[in-house]
Recover the amino acids of this structure.
């Protein structure tokens, strides 16, 4: 059995709203604020089956100038990292679940590895797959298959935990994994309205103890 996790919003949170931090950075350099939904649309478009090192190509879509985009991206990177934290339930669960564990995350290579290394998350995982590093992204099944091959695990005995239905639940569904939606803010209390519908909805990662075989918990 293997348990795969998303990173942002599942294992890591942010002390400040990321959209506010992002717009503080762009305003500092006289750039118009970026709409949250448009930012994530561009983010997913840039990351789609592409190797991406950092956020510069994402900001370039809004700013145009490559040099300024790089400056804004670097500042946002630093401030995002300053505001990141590991959810307390994540630390406990990652320590207690004995199954093989992996991270499958969308994001630029340097961005995601910067967070992983800051919090020394490597010690918990047997496989870490970053979309910007492998050139495959969620919800496509290929990025999950890379992780499963690395773990020598099969879909039928494994599950994926994430917080975004159209990326995480859909991705798990595409590859045949059991899907677990982590709903930390109570946004999906009406499970019938969640699309695609996950196999499980939890509000705290410790609820995985009731899903994972008890033999896999220390």
């Amino acid at each position: 059995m293997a348990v795969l996790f998303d990173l942002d919003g599942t294992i890591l949170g942010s002390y400040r709203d990321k959209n506010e931090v992002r717009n503080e950075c762009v305003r500092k350099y006289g750039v118009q604020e970026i709409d949250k939904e448009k930012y994530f649309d561009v983010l997913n478009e840039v990351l789609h089956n592409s190797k991406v090192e950092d956020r510069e190509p994402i900001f370039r879509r809004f700013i145009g100038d490559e040099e300024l985009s790089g400056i804004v991206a670097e500042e946002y990177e630093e401030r995002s990292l300053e505001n990141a934290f590991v959810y307390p339930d994540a630390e406990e669960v990652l320590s207690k679940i004995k199954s093989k564990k992996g991270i499958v995350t969308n994001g630029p290579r340097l961005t995601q590895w910067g967070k992983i290394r800051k919090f020394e998350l490597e010690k918990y995982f047997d496989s870490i797959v970053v979309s910007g590093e492998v050139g495959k992204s969620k919800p496509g099944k290929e990025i999950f298959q890379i992780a499963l091959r690395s773990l020598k695990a099969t879909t039928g005995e494994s599950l994926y935990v994430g917080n975004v239905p159209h990326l995480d639940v859909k991705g798990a569904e595409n590859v045949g994994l059991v899907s677990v939606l982590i709903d930390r803010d109570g946004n999906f209390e009406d499970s019938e309205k969640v699309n695609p519908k996950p196999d499980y909805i939890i509000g705290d990662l410790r609820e995985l103890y009731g899903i994972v075989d008890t033999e896999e918990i220390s």
Q: What stands out?
A: The longest strand covers residues 100-105. The mean pLDDT is 95. The domain at 2-13+85-216 is CATH 3.40.50.1000 (Rossmann fold). The chain has two domains: 2-13+85-216, 18-83.
